[in-house]
Design goal:
Helix content is about 20%, strand content about 35%. With about 425 residues, it is of the alpha/beta class.
Length: about 425
């Protein structure tokens, strides 16, 4: 069995893992390893051939492969080892792990571990859609890989379930490949995707997007022949009297992403039931010392630039570990906010703190307030907030100095004038 020790092991070679490893090397770490189970670095970026990446970090509009290539280029001449086609099969709280690849079994240890495993798609089974299991049923991400990497067109008449960003992007992609997208259904009264993707991928191509709608059955035994769709009530239950049949040969599911935290669970890291990712401090350290999490394994992001920035933040924290308080400050929030990252603050010795959050509904004319010991220490006005777009709040040193023993984020929704 091959043995090796590193200052930092990064699990995952996607946008988070690449940015984290590179930043750690720039901060002075000299023995770093990236583990990636695919045969190439880049993760999901390799199949995202549409543009819109890199505007914040590289100040130019790039496709997914171009964005990944810019990070891979930076690996040159840095003290970073890479193991591709490698799977972590066991990991322990003392930062020891066993990994396997074509070269055999490796026993690795590290001073710190950065979790950057990304996320996976929620499948048809997760939303319990009735019907047979015929050919023609895919997650939107799998269809994207088939079209953009393998060169296969999954079908010609398409219904897309869910308005997540990948589903919206695939509505446009399938249309450009001369398939006909019948409609996109969304069970909620709002889209879970970015506003720009609704405009550019659906509206610009005259693809129907039906809210408060779901599919109640998939028809066909050998191949999909159609779906039954229905409106839903306020409790998201299908209304039988509204059911109608839509003929199609392909159904794509874009019904959410789930952070890939099997390894986190194996070693006993505390997970947030809302995000599905680890509970972390402001330095992105998990409940286990020396384990950090970033990117979509922590919480699902809108923009890949934010994923990379979060990974760089974690890398800096690993390189410069700050002195922790005896008792961490819990970050709490009201019922209009779905979750806040970080959930804990270990140290107030920072020039700035950034909070990432999502809301539970569409809110207009909003005041976001941060309280400490019941005193308002920060507030910011937003004209509109939607569940599909992440909100980022950054507070500076003068506000941090006002934080005492608790921290509470609250949305105050003002009525339209």
């Amino acid at each position: 069995m091959n043995k090796a020790h590193y200052q930092l092991i990064v699990i995952g070679g996607g946008p988070a893992g690449l940015a984290g490893a590179i930043q750690a090397a720039k901060e002075g770490l000299t023995k770093i390893l990236i583990l990636e189970r695919d045969e190439h670095l880049g993760g999901i970026l390799r199949q995202c051939i549409h543009n819109g990446f890199g505007l914040h970090i590289f100040k130019e509009e790039l496709s997914g492969p171009e964005y990944a290539a810019k990070w891979v280029e930076q690996l040159q001449d840095l003290p970073i080892d890479i193991m591709l086609n490698t799977t972590v099969i066991q990991i322990s709280a003392d930062k020891a792990m066993i990994v396997v690849n074509q070269e055999g079994i490796h026993q690795l240890t590290s001073d710190n571990i950065l979790l950057a495993m990304g996320c996976r798609e929620r499948s048809r089974g997760a939303i319990m859609t009735p019907g047979f299991r015929p050919a023609g049923v895919y997650t939107a991400g799998l269809a994207q890989k088939l079209v953009n990497i393998n060169g296969y067109l999954p079908g010609k008449e398409v219904v897309i379930v869910g308005s997540g960003d990948i589903g919206l992007i695939m509505a446009r992609r399938m249309t450009l490949e001369k398939a006909h997208v019948q409609l996109v259904t969304e069970i909620m009264p709002y889209s879970s995707g970015l506003a720009r993707n609704i405009a550019q991928c659906v509206n610009d191509f005259d693809i129907p997007l039906r809210f408060n709608t779901t599919i109640t059955k998939i028809h066909g035994k050998d191949r999909v022949t159609g779906v039954t769709i229905a409106n839903v009530d306020k409790d998201l239950k299908p209304l039988k009297e509204t059911e109608s049949f839509v003929s199609c040969d392909t159904v794509l599911f874009s019904v959410g992403l789930i952070p890939e935290n099997e390894l986190s669970t194996q070693i006993g890291i505390d997970l947030d039931p809302i995000t599905g990712g680890p509970i972390v401090s402001e330095e992105l350290e998990t409940s286990l010392p020396g384990f950090y999490a970033c990117g979509n394994v922590l919480h699902v992001h809108d923009l890949v630039d934010n994923v990379s920035q979060e990974a760089m933040k974690a890398a800096k924290a690993i390189a410069y570990k700050s002195v922790k308080r005896e008792k961490a400050i819990d970050v709490e929030h009201d019922q209009k906010i779905r979750y806040v990252i970080p959930q804990k603050i270990n140290s107030l010795d920072h020039d700035e703190l950034t909070f990432s959050l999502r809301v539970t509904d569409v809110y207009r004319n909003v005041q976001i307030k941060i309280f400490s010991d019941n005193n308002t220490i920060y507030q910011q006005r937003k004209p509109i907030l939607t569940p599909g777009e992440m909100v980022k709040l950054t507070i500076k040193k003068d506000v941090i100095d006002k934080i005492k023993n608790d921290l509470y984020l609250k949305l105050e929704v003002k009525e339209d004038a």
